[in-house]
Amino acid sequence: MKTTISVIKADVGSVSGHGVAHPALIDKCDEILAKALEESILEDYYIARCGDDIDLIMTHKNGEENEEVHKTAFDAFMQATEEARKLKLYGAGQDILSDTFSGNIKGMGPGVAEMEFKERPSDPVIVYCCDKTEPGAFNLPLYRIFADPFNTAGLVIDPSLHDGFKFEIFDVMEHRKVTMSCPEEAYDLLALLGSTGRYVIKRVYKKNGEIAASVSTERLNLMAGKYVGKDDPVAICRAQSGFPAAGEVIEPFAFPHLVGGWMRGSHNGPLMPTSEDEANPIRFDGPPRIIGLGFQVSDCKLIGPVDLFDDPAFDNTRKQAADIAEYMRRHGPFEPHRLPSEEMEYTSLPGVLEKLESRFSKME
Ligand code: F6R
Ligand code: MG
Ligand code: MG
User: Fold this and answer.
1) Within 13 Å of residue 134, how many CA atoms lie on the same side as its CB?
2) End-to-end CA distance of the chain
3) What angle do CA 162, 168, 172 make, to 5 degrees?
4) Between 114 and which of 64, 74, 307, 333 could a Cys-Cys bridge form, CB atoms 3.0 to 4.6 Å apart?
């Protein structure tokens, strides 16, 4: 029997402004998920929070895109939305684009990362949840985990990793996908992955086809056709024994790379790794956050989590991120702090530019 991990996330309201999901919303989700556990839809779950996003981490035996599991998440977010409306929380129901469930939560607003696998004798799994950024924020760290020997020592020295990995890339603008193999096609892969707003890693596989990582790639603004907040992605990574070691899966986040998101989803800023408790994007609605939760998956149960960035070894990364945040902020409304024009299309900027249109006249 295979185990499925489904991580489904949404922002359905927060305090103050787009800051922090209220505990009452998490309690509501807990109620719905506990009921699904009783009804044996789920085997286990853990509810995480990163900023204004609630991340439902669920294990079950129903495979990916299962209607009952997706409906459970949908019901949890709908009930939490009701609670958010009662408390007049900010952005109540923000990520729920439709209130009628039709079999699959994908395309309805929430982000989804899932993977199904046969459990190994011991199966470490790491779940990452972000706030104030987009799915492409995982391109750099996932490349480093599964393709860069300067990050993952095992790619060089462990025969079970030496063959490399395959990357499934989504072109979120053109709705196309491509699979590329590393190390053979590393340069071609990087030619795509550098465009983080367009090409995003959806899945990573071992060369024998075993799933290694899965990312939520929903782009809310492209779905809604207008600015409704950033997508605040999640990712699931398997570790150890034929996969990168847990430490290799965590290592790239010691570098607070620049990601799109932050204030109004319109600014580049450093991705700051924090504990769950410190995942409160406050300064200029940020800087963007990531939390990491380490589990052992054991007979479809979640053992853990360990709060991976609750580690003084990441203090320096946080300090560096805070320094970079300070430096970037000094640019105010200028690129490269503000995102480039193509990326601003789905923000509130076109509304302003439209009004200026009639002021322009032809140059000689
Ligand atoms: C970014 C985000 C916030 C809001 C900002 C304006 O993903 O959620 O930075 O964009 O607080 O919010 P509104 O437009 O709701 O006033
Ligand atoms: Mg919000
Ligand atoms: Mg958010």
Assistant:
1) 31
2) 73
3) 150
4) 64
Ligand 3 center from residue 209 Cα (angstroms): 33
Residue 331: how many other CB atoms lie within 10 Å: 13
Percent with pLDDT over 90 in the chain = 90
Ligand 1 contacts (CB < 6 A) are 17-18, 132, 229-230, 263-265, 285
Backbone angles phi, psi at 311, to 5 degrees: -145, 125
Specify the pLDDT at position 225. 67
Q: For residue 93, give the nearest of 107, 106, 69, 76 by alpha carbon.
A: 76
Dihedral sign (CA 348, 352, 354, 360): negative
Position 229 scores a pLDDT of 62
Nearest CA to ligand 1 atom 14: 264
Catalytic residues, by residue number, are 11, 227, 230
Structure tokens at 39: 């009804």
Distance, CA of 199 to CA of 278 (rounded, Å): 30
Between 305 and 219, whose confidence is greater? 305
How far from the centroid of its chain's Cα atoms is residue 352's Cα?
30
pLDDT of residue 364: 87
Residue 275 to residue 48: CA distance in whole angstroms: 11
CB burial string 135-150: b at 16+ within 10 A, e below:
bbbbbbbbbbbbbbee
